[in-house]
Amino acid sequence: MKSEKKIVIVGNGLAAWLSAAMISYEIKEKKANHRVCIVESKKTLPVGVGEGSIPSLVPVLERLGIDLTKINATYKLGIEYTNWYSEAASPFNKWYHTFSFPGWMEENLSAMINYDNFFSKIEKASDEEKSKSLLDNAYALHFDTHCLTQELKKKVLLSGYCDIIPGTVNKVNLSEEGIQSINLDNETVLKGDYYLDCTGFNRVLISQFDPKFTDYSNVLLCNSALAFVQEPKEEKITFTVATALSSGWKWEIPTTEKTGHGYVYSSEFISEDEATKELLASVGVSENKSLNIKKFAWEPKILERPFIKNCFAIGLSSGFLEPMEALSIDITRNLIQNFLSHLFFHRNNDSLNRKISSYAKEAVDYLAAHYQLSKRSESPFWRYYSSNVKASPGMIKKISDCKHRYLKRHYPWSEPELHHRKDFPWNTDNIFRPHSWIVMLAGMNADR
Ligand SMILES: Cc1cc2nc3c(=O)[nH]c(=O)nc-3n(C[C@H](O)[C@H](O)[C@H](O)COP(=O)(O)OP(=O)(O)OC[C@H]3O[C@@H](n4cnc5c(N)ncnc54)[C@H](O)[C@@H]3O)c2cc1C
Question: Can you tell me the mean pLDDT for 434-443?
């Protein structure tokens, strides 16, 4: 019989419960003897925001048996970027980052020269055509993060592999192997073989190792957000809508029970009061209406090594860039899968850390390009981007490859074909494949 390992998870947010659910699932599948315990603190609340996802989360939720109606899910075919190219609001100042090029768009793909047709084709597609694309697996979900956390918790409790320990960590005891034990505020002392730090920006466990971060605040200027919810809209929206504003951008995300709105901005360029006014005006809500507006702040940085000794930073504790492209929960999924390959296949921390760090770097290039390719100049925020922020060598290479190899050519390709091309400039593990860059370059008129 294989030896039993005890995995201690600290946290009560989405990262903690997703970790507990995925690990419990694998313990059952592999008939292992490991045990999970989760330290649940009622003293600090989870961030409880983040309604967007990317396609790789869908099979995970399916495998875990999550009922989509219980998390108020709607289908997401991608992101509609509005007013990013310039500040002039016009029907042409819009582009779509679809998750793939499904069949119903193919006709336009073979004539990539006409981008306006390509994007208007997406706009005009009927629900039937869009649902066909769902069959191509080219979809993600919008959902209620709080409901998802609760559903995951139910699954974990039913699995029988996890114990819940109430309390808040107030001391971490170290040894040669990393963490030896943790003390809770109710006198409990917990010992484990592995410790998962899911304590969000508090980073209660991983901070004991004085870890280094890669700071991206020179290219990703946004560091704050305001968010509120409204009644759901009647019209069906199958895209997250991301609209550029004076000092960042605004999201609009539909779930079945509400529409989420949020302004992601840089506090260096706009005050909270001004940002609130701009957000409400953009949604068409009166300033006097009492809304429960939530505030968030972060530093755009990622841990260089989220896995140190027997401590694994998962979720926001490993870092956060910004909400654009809804990557954070997927990065969490990726970290958990990497932890599982350490637990079950003994993959070493160094190779996993390298993999995670390259995933983050690629993501930064793609996010930063949204701002750097924009021709907006109406405010100090956008002018700062155009005069002070330099493109990274990785970004320059990708843009140049796209322009010269793909954009100007006229040949009917599909995404899988592109993946197998020998001169393909990115490795296929990359989250942002050529089609993501191509639609952005086309949408931002970068090839003209
Ligand atoms: C404005 C904004 C928008 C976002 N939008 C998206 C999106 O669209 N898509 C997406 O994928 N992601 C998004 N995210 C990220 C997403 O919210 C997080 O990835 C996700 O909620 C997981 O958070 P977490 O569990 O890591 O941290 P938290 O939710 O912060 O949870 C941390 C937990 O740790 C516990 N804790 C803290 N200290 C202690 C202690 N000493 N002892 C015990 N427990 C402790 C707290 O009680 C809490 O339960 C967004 C984030 C922000 C800020």
Answer: 80
